[in-house]
Design brief:
Length: 248
């Protein structure tokens, strides 16, 4: 189903596709854009600027990493409130009816046709672009390391999160532990598998990483630390150096 609703902006953008780095960056929650036809899914601007609509600072951080590492980068073009590109199709939060404690009016009682429209228009193009990039690199004999770039809110559902950053991993335990150590680990308030874990609710790491036998992690940086250009530059420097020391 392609009715043109999700063409401007495109649902996915691949930047620096021919980058020389072994690292492939994916940023599923890069944008908060919702087409005018959806009337903000019934939410006001203050809510659409919050973490529920996107990962604040993630796109800027991912681009900073891509520049420093000469890495290819896959960026999502629409708000995760429409469809979350880091969720399997069976997930109840693929098109959330409630995000944290906020009810999403435009996602209540979605028809099968509307769900199919969003999947075909946003979700599938993102996954196809990521898969095509990894396939092309494999065909050239280039092994990839998958890194998802995310940010998280300092307070979630009333809980003050004590971490500056987290490194999330599934099967890539050795890579995840090396990266965690390179970033400073618990002594620098950086945790393994916090504030989330890679489980049945995720897509990028299990599908684009673990299922291919590739090292894969998801980075989570607290969003107030990358809320301005200085913070983005500082964390991009830090994470880029840590990745260079961790990739084998």
């Amino acid at each position: 189903m392609d009715d043109g609703l999700f063409r401007d902006p495109p649902p996915v953008t691949v930047e620096n596709e021919g980058g020389s780095s072994p690292i492939v960056l994916l940023c599923e929650h890069a944008s908060r854009f919702i087409p005018p036809a959806y009337a903000g899914l019934g939410l006001d601007e203050p809510d659409l600027s919050r973490h529920i609509a996107w990962d604040i600072g993630a796109a800027e951080l991912a681009r900073g990493l891509a520049r420093r590492l000469d890495a290819p980068l896959v960026l999502g073009g629409y708000s995760r409130l429409l469809v979350d590109c880091n969720r399997p199709l069976s997930s109840p939060t693929l098109m959330p009816t409630v995000s944290e404690t906020t009810r999403i009016p435009g996602n209540q009682d979605l028809s099968d046709a509307e769900r199919a429209r969003r999947i075909a228009g946003i979700f599938t193009p993102f996954q196809d672009a990521a898969a095509a990039l990894l396939d092309a690199r494999a065909a050239r004999g280039v092994r990839s390391t998958v890194v998802g770039v995310h940010t998280f809110t300092p307070v979630f559902d009333g809980f003050v999160r004590p971490w500056f950053a987290g490194v999330l991993y599934g099967r890539a335990v050795a890579f995840g532990e090396r990266l965690l150590a390179a970033l400073g680990g618990p002594s620098e308030t950086i945790a393994a598998n916090e504030p989330y874990r890679i489980d049945g609710a995720d897509y990028t790491i299990p599908v684009h990483g673990d299922a291919r036998g590739l090292d894969a992690v998801l980075l989570e940086i607290r969003n107030d630390l990358v809320g301005d250009p200085a913070g983005v530059e500082s964390w991009a420097d830090r994470v880029a150096q840590a990745l260079l020391h961790s990739v084998r």
